[in-house]
Amino acid sequence: MDANRGDPQLGWDTDQFPNSVEENALVMYEILKAGGFTTGGLNFDAKVRRQSTDKYDLFYGHIGAMDTMALALKVAARMVEDGELDKRVAKRYAGWNSELGQQILKGQISLAQLAQYAEQHKLAPQHQSGHQELLENLINHYLFDN
Predict the structure, then answer these.
(1) CA 56, CA 75: separation in Å to the nearest integer?
(2) Which residue windows are coiled coil (predicted)?
């Protein structure tokens, strides 16, 4: 996996070494949930910045990136082992596991059929909070509470 970063304001990769445990913990979380690295690993497809002219800058970049990704992996492992984030996400999207949800996901029902279904069953769904701030704080708990 290319483990480099870009500028979020630019929207593209700038080949900088990763230095954010916060961002990479979520990346490693998804990798672990998908079974982890079965072949390969991390590729620091990165380079030092133009202003980094000391011969040790490349060394610092690689060491810092390895430390960042190692800590991100430890955080991600705690997130997976605890299971709280998975549980909350599963609860949020549980409706997609219903018969109707599965029909929608599989493309087995058209929008017109869905509208007819809603009218026939007098559906009146109630808004439910996504609890985004709670989930963000949960992730901070994994990051900053030992």
Answers:
(1) 28
(2) none
Residue 91 is predicted with a pLDDT of: 94
DSSP β-bridge partners for residue 12: 7
Burial of 10 (0-12, 13-18, 19+ CB in 10 A): exposed
Token digits of residue 120 = 């026939």
Amino acid at 1: M
Low-confidence ranges of the chain (pLDDT < 50): none
Q: Measured in Å, how far apart are the chain's first and last C-alpha atoms?
A: 27
- Domain chopping of the chain, boundaries: 1-92, 95-124
**Residue 21 identity (one-letter amino acid):** V
Question: Which position has the token pair 């808004």?
Answer: 127
Model pLDDT, residue 4 = 86
Task: Give the DSSP H/E element, type plus range, for residue 85.
Answer: helix 84-92
DSSP-derived pairing of the beta strands 5-7 and 12-16: antiparallel
Pairwise CA distance, residues 127 & 40, whole Å: 43
Q: Which amino acid is at 96?
A: W
Rounded CA-CA distance 77/25 in Å is: 9
φ, ψ for residue 50, nearest 5 deg = -55, -35
Q: How far apart are the C-alpha atoms of 140 and 53, rounded to whole Å? A: 35
